[in-house]
């Protein structure tokens, strides 16, 4: 267990060093990047399309920050095994740690960006409720598990089918618009409401937004996000373990 922890810490440190090497702003980029995207989306949906949602700036940022962390994790994980081919061929180590370090890296950036959301909550006079004590850690663990599960699938599939690396950016763009990030879940037509239950990321996005906006969490949606995270993680880990023994032949 100590070996796993030390290995992940080393990989995390390496990812941090590479990401911010020779940059002037450093960590600020982790907040600035999703914030700039949020500003563009705010202009399009609030100013041009005139979407009517209360506290829309906070509404949008709470979704975009979460999605950016998820999207970055999947994109960076797609080459996790390929870019570390030398290590995989020469040494034995828990290869899933390569993906886990990438996911933890982006999850940490998401957590470090939450103070920006707190400032917006303060601006809109939204206070932290008691539900934060249990909902925040559970949502964070759910986000970690579901992102890790998808990242393992992407990294493993891309090793055997290199086209997947190019497909992932297209998939993420389509998936973004199918997830209630720019719009509220109640804006989805009644006959399409089932989408929010069959979209694994919709439940987590909705839960984060309710938490940041200070509105009551929907028990059904919350349980759905927990079940999806367990299911996706289990499937991703099973795919990885089933094909792990072939990695050295394909990297």
Briefly summarize what is shown:
The protein is mainly α. Helices cover 75% and strands 0% of the residues.
Give a written overview of the molecule.
The structure is a single chain. The chain is mainly α. The protein has one domain (2-250). 75% of the residues lie in helices and 0% in strands. The chain contains 11 helices and no strands. Helix 3 (56-77) packs antiparallel against helix 7 (164-178). The longest helix has 29 residues, at 132-160. The model has no long low-confidence stretch (mean pLDDT 83).
Major β-sheet profile: none
Can you tell me the number of structural domains?
Answer: 1
Helical fraction:
over 70%
Number of strands: 0
Outline the fold blueprint:
Blueprint (H helix, E strand, L loop, with lengths): L1 H19 L7 H21 L7 H22 L7 H6 L5 H28 L8 H29 L3 H15 L16 H4 L1 H14 L5 H25 L3 H4 L1
Notable traits:
mainly alpha, globular, 251 residues
